[in-house]
Hints:
The chain is an alpha+beta fold. Helices cover 21% and strands 32% of the residues. The strands form 4 sheets. Strands 1-2-3-4-10-9-6-5 form an 8-stranded mixed β-sheet, covered by helices on one side. The chain has a 3-stranded mixed β-sheet with strand order 13-14-15, with helices on both faces. The chain is globular. The two termini are 34 Å apart.
Amino acid sequence: AKPLSAALDAAAEAGTPHDISSLSLVISSGVMWTAEVKQQMLKHQDMILIDAMGSTEGSMGRSITTRDTQSATAKFEMGEATKVFNEHDQEVKPGSGEIGMIAAGGMVPVGYFKDPEKSARTFRTIDGVPYSFPGDFATVEADGTIKLLGRGSVCINSGGEKIYPEEVEEAVKRHPAIYDCLVVGVPDERFGEKVTAVAAPRPGQDVDEQAVIGEARSHIAGYKLPKHVILVPEVKRAPNGKADYKWAKSAALAALGLT
């Protein structure tokens, strides 16, 4: 959605706005869709924006945004068959602040072809109900919605604290000079891993590392802040927009001389 929003902005600024009067609905899935990008799109046209949370293994929730109905970044209404379980397979209580893993019920696959080990981790039965656990962690808000934190496989462990890259990425992108960003953990003797941002500035923008970190400090806790901001011409993503964390980590290690 961000490239679409940027294209609409550029056309409007050039005095040649696109005619999107027939565009009434946009659905996005697989990539964090921030409230800011949604608002930017709604400036051009009143439409329905659906942010769908799911994976190949199952659907888990959605949020709907219009000019009259706002939604926060990474906040979703749970699907009817969606649950959030803690490490003891107990449902996370709304408003408790406890972190759990999202489980998708309903039409659950039997397993992965010829991969019983991964199947056992992903597809589990709790109290007689089969669920799919794609690996995403979340909290359950007091109103019953879920706040998506991110995928456990890319979680950064720094000084014993678990830090989800997506939250840090959104904080870094709050700086007006930053267009896109991925966050990874790189080896650190003291903390095990240190948070490092790999960011692409907007065209023609000069970026001050400390200013970016300072802006992020306004949105996240101090221990989650990136220790370094590595600038690159472009943040690499898959064609569908999904983050390429392997590339981001390689770029960070090379820039810091850790390869």
